[in-house]
Amino acid sequence: MRIGSLILCCVVPVLAFLGAVASAANPFAGSNLYYAAYVNEANTSVRTFRGLQNAGMKVLRVWLDGQSETQKGTNINPFPDLEPVQICNSVSSCYNDTVLDHLDEFMLLARSHDMKLLVDMHSFNALQADDVYGTEYGIADFYTNAIAQEASDARFVHVLNHVQTTLHQPWKELNEYTCGFEAENEAMIGDAQTFIEDHQQWQCDRANTIKTELKANTGVHPRPHWVVLTGGESWVVESVQPGFLNCTALDVISIHAYAVTDYYTSSDIESYVQQALDANTKFIVEEWGVCYYDTSNNDYPSGAALPTDTRNYNIQGWAANITAAGLPRLYWEAIPNADPHWGGDYEVGIVDGPSWNTLKQAARDALSAPAGFNFSEYLL
Ligand SMILES: *[C@@H]1O[C@H](CO)[C@@H](O)[C@H](O)[C@H]1NC(C)=O
Ligand SMILES: *[C@@H]1O[C@H](CO)[C@@H](O)[C@H](O)[C@H]1NC(C)=O
Ligand SMILES: *[C@@H]1O[C@H](CO)[C@@H](O)[C@H](O)[C@H]1NC(C)=O
Ligand SMILES: *[C@@H]1O[C@H](CO)[C@@H](O)[C@H](O)[C@H]1NC(C)=O
Ligand SMILES: *[C@@H]1O[C@H](CO)[C@@H](O)[C@H](O)[C@H]1NC(C)=O
């Protein structure tokens, strides 16, 4: 389907299945900024958080992988990977904590704007770009090799025990600054849906490591107020696996989907939400984005720019469908500068972006809608 011809036929009424939990809470909104740690001017970061706060957004999802160049028109300071030279496997002097030190400051800023960070601890993108794990194992063996699994677990433990520079407490105690952790952005994508189905235990095993480390703090906090998430796959059907639903260490299943049809209220999204409710787990639309171009939304788009009104109409309509499903959502991505429209383009510039007001309004609208899942204990 081409977005340019999308017609918003109707604002869908609240789904009947949400009736029983309609008073539970409201869906929240947030955004992604994978290179957040590298934004090179304090003012740019402040402006970002002011904008997001103004939209009522609660969560910003960040990654830990090194970046060396300007991203999406945002000036950044280059930083190395957390494991820049070799796989560290618990040898603490081997990790380069620069990225964690930067996020230390960034999380304080987030908190002062009533937001928390959701931390993704490694990304498929880094693996594919041949970071130390990609070089050693490639994008499939990384998930099947026992030593790679052990080294990944060691990385998570290292991150969770990183001592915040000014608060002098490890991240695993700072649940007022972070709301959740996940092992990998889009684990196993590029290996086919059947590979994800065959290796779904990988997610539960990694989540167990993360959860165990967080739970070791029960003495400090009566309950661990964090969620452990899957980090998403490429579309809804891939993102939801039975072995994710039944894994007690996984609190939240992340949905990443860029096909408009994945959020059609008339299709599967409703039955998926019901599966999560039945399994006593939660869903988040952790990545969604509305294309700037007139190509199909999930077609790594680049084409002719849509008229602003059409794109805004699409943002509104898609957000309304996500709201009707009762789901919280993080946009890919609200960026701190005017959007230069590089590459596959879903971004919305917080500063002067012609779609920012629409996205902001959609985020605010969610705050008064009924939710399928109650996240309030994890948010500020
Ligand atoms: C949502 O969760 C919060 C925190 O656990 C709780 O106080 C509140 O009662 C819940 N809301 C409903 C309607 O269950
Ligand atoms: C950052 O913001 C402060 C206060 O608003 C201002 O005085 C300063 O000039 C800004 N710095 C830059 C580099 O824009
Ligand atoms: C970490 O990386 C930074 C930036 O490249 C570098 O200056 C620093 O020496 C590195 N630290 C360690 C412990 O390797
Ligand atoms: C969870 O689901 C997976 C995939 O269907 C299955 O292999 C596993 O046995 C289930 N585990 C439990 C504890 O039910
Ligand atoms: C919302 O879902 C309805 C029902 O499936 C569909 O007709 C409509 O096109 C969707 N809206 C958008 C903007 O995708």
UniProtKB/TrEMBL annotation:
InterPro entries attached to this UniProt entry: GH, Glyco_hydro_5
Any GO BP annotation: polysaccharide catabolic process
Protein family per UniProt: Belongs to the glycosyl hydrolase 5 (cellulase A) family.
Domain of life: Eukaryota
Glycoside hydrolase family domain segment(s): 38-333
GO molecular function: hydrolase activity, hydrolyzing O-glycosyl compounds
Signal peptide segment: 1-24
Alphabetical UniProt keywords: Glycosidase, Hydrolase, Signal
Name recorded for this polypeptide: Glycoside hydrolase family 5 protein
Lineage: Eukaryota, Fungi, Dikarya, Basidiomycota, Agaricomycotina
Cross-referenced Pfam families: Cellulase
